[in-house]
Design goal:
2 copies of one chain form a homodimer.
Chain A: H1 14-29, H2 36-43, H3 47-54, H4 57-65, H5 71-79, H6 86-99, H7 102-115, H8 117-138, H9 146-166, H10 177-193
Helix pairs in contact in A: 1-2, 1-4, 1-8, 2-3, 4-8, 5-6, 5-8, 6-10, 7-8, 7-9, 8-9, 9-10
Chain lengths: ~200, ~200
């Protein structure tokens, strides 16, 4: 595809136009189906400019989400070491991010996801493609079980964030991280590597 | 205290004035410290009128929260039977309420709690005084451990509601209730009756 230099390459609104188009694409079509080319088309710019500004599709997604941290930088710590300790390491890393200044952005994201269906979809795509898929792909887990295991992990982690940082219910709100690691870690471990029931959906299939 | 018949007994705004005063009192002072007498004073009515309209302090709180169900009607089902099955029964009852038409009100309450500090405080008081305290008081659990156990249960249940009904992450969003009962029930059971770590707060005490 030929470079089309006439399409707003230096416009100061270009970056925002790309991010708006990316948010729409990721929310509507999901991370996997969204393409840099289509996003560039919506924003009226050359795909090369999207790569120039944001790098990979993963990085564009993080920018579109205004994600305060890149899960790819944190996951090696979670995944390294004994597979039987992954639950505790995931909770420890999760709390370290949320207890840091980045946690403020996390609370804002959570508030937005709850009030806005569009942000909820982005958050869902983010959790699945940037965090859970990476963690679970690394482990020796049956592929058919990955979605249920991943979304169970999400129930416990999003609830921990809600109670500690949004609703601020004591003593979880002020507990030392290691108290929560020891309490919640085994839950995450069971959801990732433990026995789960055979899966059925509401229709009974 | 003498009945003061001059204070707006029949005003159609009286009910709302009492509920407004009640929400303020429960959010600011907490359920235990809020008194019917003080709420009546704020609303400019006789305390007897509050009892006449709403009954007990518990019932006034449920009305102020616009709670779609009364936990006292559901808890006997949860508490009856084998203590080792309380985790599964609590999840089953929780899902039955949220999967019913009452769940719509629950989602609205959750959305409001996330965007509004005042509703978050009401929700916290509701969860603690109307649900967790009743469940845990019924069980043979050391009183000093009740707050941590209760707020851990809250992390898992609020996260389950968030993922199933708000973020709608699959397969949890469409899973048959019994799949979730079998998956999440043991987590709740461990938080209620299992071994927990010694508790420390962030200050390291």
């Amino acid at each position: 595809m030929a470079r089309r230099t006439g399409r707003r390459p230096g416009n100061p609104g270009t970056r925002e136009a790309i991010l708006d188009a990316a948010r729409a694409a990721f929310a509507e079509r999901g991370f996997d189906a969204a393409s840099i080319r289509a996003i560039a088309g919506t924003a009226g710019v050359d795909p090369a400019l999207v790569h120039h500004y944001f790098g990979s599709k993963d990085q564009l997604f993080l920018a579109a989400m205004q994600a305060p941290v890149d899960p790819r930088e944190l996951l090696p710590t979670v995944l390294a070491g004994d597979p039987g300790g992954i639950g505790e390491r995931l909770v420890r890393t999760f709390l370290a991010v949320w207890d840091s200044p980045a946690g403020t952005a996390g609370v804002a994201l959570l508030r937005s996801a709850v009030s806005n269906e569009w942000t909820a979809r982005l958050l869902r795509e983010f959790v699945v493609t940037q965090v859970l898929r990476r963690v679970l792909n690394h482990l020796d887990v049956a592929p058919a079980e990955l979605p249920l295991r991943g979304s169970l992990v999400a129930t416990q982690l999003i609830g921990l964030a809600m109670i500690r940082y949004v609703v601020r219910l004591e003593p979880v709100a002020s507990a030392a991280p290691e108290t929560l690691v020891a309490s919640v870690g085994p839950t995450i471990q069971r959801y990732i590597t433990g026995d789960l029931p055979p899966q059925r959906d509401s229709a009974g299939s």
